[in-house]
Every structure is written in C-alpha cells, then in structure tokens.
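Notes on consecutive records. When two proteins share a document, each keeps its own sequence and its own token line. Never mix them. Below: protein one.
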Amino acid sequence: NVTVRGFTVKSHTGTRGITNRDDAAAAYQPVTGIRVLNNVVTKFTNGVDFRRARGEITGNQVYGNSTRGMYLREYPPASPGGFTVLNNVLSGNGAGGSQYDLVLEDVYTGTVVMSNTITGGLTEACILVNNEAGSVELTGNTLNACGEGVLILQNGGTAIIQQVKVERNTITGGGIGVRVRRTAGTSSLRQ
C-alpha cells in the first residue's frame, strides 16, 4: 500500500508527476492499494500515470500537463480490480487531438470515475475510454468546454468488450456530449 497525500508536484520538463513506472526496469510495476489524495500536479507530460495498479485517486488538482492529466491503463485479463477516481479537478491538460484530461485505456473491471470537474480545451475529449473496459462507471461528473465530453473508442484489438455506464453527468460548452466510435480493430461488444 502506498499513499501520496498533500503534495504540490510541479515540473517544466518531467514526464510523469505521480506514477508507478520503474525507469530502471523500463516497466510499470504492479501496485495495489495506491492512494493519491489531495495533491496538486502540474506541468508534466502526464500528471498522474498508473498502469497495472488499483486504488483511489481523490481530491487532486491536476492541470496544465502537456499530454494527459490522468492516464490509467492495463489489460483486463490480469485484473486486480479497478481504480476509484473521485472529486478531482482537472483542467488545461493536453493540447488537443489525441491529448486528453482523463484517459482510461484497457482498464480493469470496477473502475469508477465519479464527481470530478473537468474543463477541457474544446479540441479533445475530456474523458477517453479506450479499447477494453470492463464494468466502468462514469457518474456525476461535470465536464465543460470539451470537444467531446466522453469518447468511448476502439482503435485496435480483436473482440474488445466495452461495458461503460454513463449516468448523471453534466456536459456543457462543447461540441459532442457522448460519442461511441470505432476507428480500427474487429467489431466488438459494447454495452
């Protein structure tokens, strides 16, 4: 179990603000019980970056990161459980195109994103659910000025299963509210 609480983490050239990446091994080490609470994370490539991990990300301010505010990723077949992403404020992350405030890519069953406030840059999706997603919940979030509020995307893979529950979110001031899209890979099951 690891807790990161109450820090201001700031850089102008760093790649990852808070992460489980082991640069010596050039790999992400599995971590369970991670808690990232009440931090300020700014001016990195990726503000909060976890793979092969589970835990809680709550009450953080994540802004001004050049590619992604939060990036949570790994493959459901090795599932240790999901992340809870709760009551965070994200803004000004990414510069459009394939850069986003919150990315959930090949995430574990049971990931919940709830009661977050995200202000985008009008050219990207505020929340991207990419490829496999087992029982992901996006609930009660406030999304503003997003090119797409929520983008559920398949851009590769075979027989992808995407189970995403989108409920009680407020999406304002953008181009598209919620979009489900496939750009590559074989047809898949979406629920």
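Protein two starts on the next line and is unrelated to protein one.
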Amino acid sequence: GKYALSGASAAGLNYTYSRYSFAGESGATDENQLQATWSKAVSEATSVNLALGLAYSDQEGQRFDWTGLASVEKQLKGGLLKVAYTREITHSSGLAPETSLSDRLTASYLKNISASWDADFSTNIGYYASEPSGDFDLFIYGVEAGTNWRPYKWLSMGMGVSHYQQWASGTAEDLARDEVFFNFTVSPVEWRI
C-alpha cells in the first residue's frame, strides 16, 4: 500500500509472492519480495521515486538478494523526461529453469505534439544474471521511437521502430533484432454498473 506523508510525498510497503514452475525435473521456485517505496514531488515539475527491497528465493537452496528503483521524472514544456535505474528478480526469459537478476538503466522522453498526438523515444541498457548457474547471463541494449494518435477517446493508433541487441555469456546466444510495429487500440470510454 501507499500512504501520503504530505501533499508532496508518499511512502509505501509492498509484498510480492511469485512461484516459477519449470518444465521437466527442474521443479519450481518460490520467491518472496518485500519492498519499501518513497516518492516526492521536489518541485511542481519534478518528482523522485525510490524503492529498496529484499527478495528471498528457495532456488538451489536459500538465497537473499536486494531489489531497488531510483527514478526522476521531469515535466518539460510539452513533454515528460524520465530516467530510471531498476534492479529486480524475474523469470529468466525461458532460456533455463532459473530466475534472473536484472540491473537496468532506462531513459525515455514523451513529447505531446497536440492534444491527440504524441511521440516517444526510449532507450535502455541492462545486465541479466541467471541465478544460480550464470550460464545465461545477458548484456542488453534497446532503443525505440514511436508515435500515437488518438482521433477519438475510444481509438488509439500507433507506429514505431525498435532495435534490440543482446550479448550473451555461457550457453546463450548473441541476438540482434529490428522491428517496425503498428498497433490499434479500441477501448470503451466509460463503463458504469
């Protein structure tokens, strides 16, 4: 939950339980995470978010690790700039019956071109360490640019391009991929029961 400390700051405490079931004889892994969060609007246009947590996993014995987040958001004239560092424990992307410890640095900029049209640019770098073996460690880089247009409240159309690159160690493979994407989203404006 999140609790307002003042009009400009809030704190919270989150608990997450995850169970990863792996095919074959690898079994399953239970994971518990407890994370404390804090956010503050340091000015009318700038906010800071921090989180620090502890994760416990029973995979290959018992192990503890830390999780965290540090981000800054800055409202600019007609846009939003966000820079963040995250450390989290996730599933290992299916490459192995292991969990993955990821450290990622991301930056994004969302530009409001008009009331119904925006453009965004984002980039990220990260390192994914497979636990406990280290056989599927990945260093990744990605960049994406796109635009969205909302001609009606219930319809959004978007398009963009992205590039993803991974360099692997252990038994995983290097990979590069480029994408061009189009999306159409139809959503109800308002539902009342």
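For the record: The chain has a mean pLDDT of 87.
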